[in-house]
Model the fold of this input.
Amino acid sequence: MSAASLFGRVRGCSHVPRAEHASPLAQLDAVGNFVCDRLAALRELRGAPPHAGAPPRAPPALRAPPAAPPPVGAPHAAAVA
Done:
């Protein structure tokens, strides 16, 4: 695929406005930035480290389970106080 074709596809998929570059190297630079951004977002969603040499992220803090709802017909805590 040519640099112009790849750049055109990136412009179509990207939400970041990109100027039309005349230089194939500038177009490939923009394509590389787009691919790296997508890869970093995908790794973040999967919980993987941002790049191969980075230490793994700490697991998220455990949350307490939600409190059980009050029984139907029970007075509301604000109304009792």
